[in-house]
Every structure is written in structure tokens, then in C-alpha cells.
Design brief:
alpha+beta; six-stranded mixed sheet; 34% helix; elongated; disordered N terminus
Length: 284
């Protein structure tokens, strides 16, 4: 490490201590906002290098690009380029996702009450107006997931307010589900399939048989823990191979399947493509 250049103020020692523990840090100005872009990135001249399409860390000499400036490199934190920022800093912030953490930011008493009734107990940190609940594990960040509740993890920063109290709990599904958007209304493609040969009665038209099959398909999609796209396609293929050729499927049935897939993160276009590919695979 280079010879320390920052000898005054409480923020650099705190930042260096956090960095040594593997927590990426950055300075915050008054108002809990990061420092502006450095001269070579002023007015987004660099194209906003760390962004949704290229979310890598910032490599500018000054603390630039908000959350992406967070670092664990002591030579950067204690460098002349960061010295001016530390002298103006009002607080130390950190990148929760970079430390493998998720912060549930509870902004008022009602939000805290909701968390106590809904979420697993975990480490908590008192804030000016509420509490931060910290979980072990990273996830996408989102604001206003419910009244008074924000999620801060990847591509976000949180103010460092101390280590908090209580043991860390593994990030639960109930927190991950907070950032999952409700599926958009589904308009599945009409399934055009030939009528039964000979015009006989369809053996699948029993409501119990068909509904049980659709319910099992929904459950298979819902319970997929990995390879969701492949599971959706395989499920669509199974449903169509059993019920597709006799014309007993309705738009209501396909809407249920599409909705289950979208709840697992599939887009409407992916659903439509998977359905079309299943039809093609079966020669329908």
C-alpha cells in the first residue's frame, strides 16, 4: 500500500476498515448523494461506462459514477485523487451487492411493523427515520417495492451507519419476490389444431381431467428452481402433446400457463416463442 495521504477526518479510517473486510466503499456528499463525474466523464462524455448494459466498476481516478465507484482497494481509497472527496464527504457509503449483501431499507414505522410481521429476523441497523435490515446474499435493487420499503443490493449504494445488531440471515425468497413485477395481461396466441380424426368425441373434454393437467403444468413451472426457460418449453410441449390435437385447449387454459411462466420471469415474447416452438416440434 502507498504511504497514507489522508490523516484527518473519521471517514477514511472507516472506509479503509470496511474495505479490509471486503466491503466496497465510496464517499457521499451532504444529502446522501455521490460525487459528480470526474472531468473526463463530465456530462456523461464517457457514455456512462458502468450502467445496466455494462455494470462493471468505475476505473476513474476520482470517486466517479455513483455506486460503481465503490472499491475495496486501499490505495484508491487513500489516494490523492480521493482526498478532496473525503474532505468534503458527509458520510461513507457502501455497495451492498458487492459485499454479497441485500439491504431492506425500511423508511418509517409502518414499514418496520410490516417487516416484523412478514420477513425473517436478521441483522438490523437504525437509520434516521427507520431501519436497515441486512440479509446475506445479493439480488437486483428496486425502489418503492411497497410503501416505505426500498431494496438496495446490486448496482446501488447504502449509507454506512454501523455494523448493526443480530446475526445475518440468508436472503429469503420473500425478499427476492418483492422486486418481481406482476405479469402483464397475457394474450396467448390462438392454438390452431386439427379436430379429432373421424369426428369422434374428444377423450379429454372431461373438465376434471383437463383442469388437473393444466394445474400440474402450472405447478411444474412454478416449482422450477433453475433452467426456467427450458422447463417452460418442456411443459408447453407436454400439454400440447396431450391436449393439443383434439382442440380442447382454450385461451383461458393457455393464459394460465403463460401467467405461470411470466411469474417466474419469462417475458410475454418468450412465452409466445416457447409455445410456437412446441407447436412446430409436434408438427402442429
Amino acid at each position: 500500500m502507498t504511504q497514507p495521504t489522508l490523516i484527518r477526518g473519521e471517514h477514511p479510517p472507516t472506509a479503509l476498515s470496511l474495505a479490509a473486510a471486503g466491503v466496497p466503499v465510496l464517499p457521499l456528499r451532504a444529502g446522501k448523494v455521490p460525487f459528480g463525474n470526474c472531468p473526463r466523464c463530465d456530462r456523461n462524455a464517457c457514455g456512462g461506462r458502468p450502467n445496466m448494459k455494462n455494470p462493471g466498476p468505475c476505473d476513474c481516478p476520482a470517486p466517479c459514477h455513483g455506486w460503481a465507484a465503490a472499491t475495496t482497494d486501499p490505495d484508491v481509497i487513500d489516494s490523492p485523487a480521493w482526498a478532496s472527496a473525503w474532505r468534503q464527504a458527509a458520510a461513507v457509503a457502501y455497495h451492498p451487492g458487492g459485499a454479497g449483501l441485500t439491504v431492506v431499507d425500511l423508511d418509517n414505522a409502518d414499514a418496520i411493523t410490516w417487516a416484523r410481521e412478514t420477513l425473517p429476523v436478521t441483522r438490523s441497523v437504525r437509520t434516521t427515520r427507520g431501519e436497515h435490515w441486512l440479509y446475506q446474499g445479493a439480488m437486483p435493487s428496486a425502489n418503492k417495492v411497497r410503501p416505505g420499503v426500498d431494496i438496495k443490493s446490486t448496482m446501488a449504494y447504502a449509507r454506512w451507519l454501523g455494523p448493526g445488531t443480530g446475526p445475518l440471515t440468508a436472503l429469503p425468497d420473500v425478499v427476492r419476490a418483492l422486486v418481481v413485477k406482476a405479469p402483464a395481461p397475457v394474450r396467448p396466441a390462438t392454438v390452431a389444431v386439427p379436430a379429432p380424426a373421424g369426428g369422434g368425441t374428444c377423450p379429454h373434454r372431461s373438465p376434471t381431467y383437463l383442469n388437473r393437467g393444466i394445474a400440474m403444468a402450472e405447478q411444474r413451472i412454478t416449482e422450477a428452481s433453475s433452467a426456467v426457460h427450458n422447463t417452460v418449453f418442456a411443459t408447453f410441449l407436454a400439454v400440447l402433446s396431450t391436449h393439443g390435437r383434439c382442440g380442447c385447449l382454450t385461451e383461458a387454459h393457455t393464459a394460465r400457463l403463460f401467467a405461470a411462466a411470466q411469474a417466474k420471469g419469462e417475458s410475454p415474447r418468450h412465452c409466445a416463442d416457447a409455445w410456437a416452438n412446441a407447436l412446430t416440434r409436434l408438427g402442429m
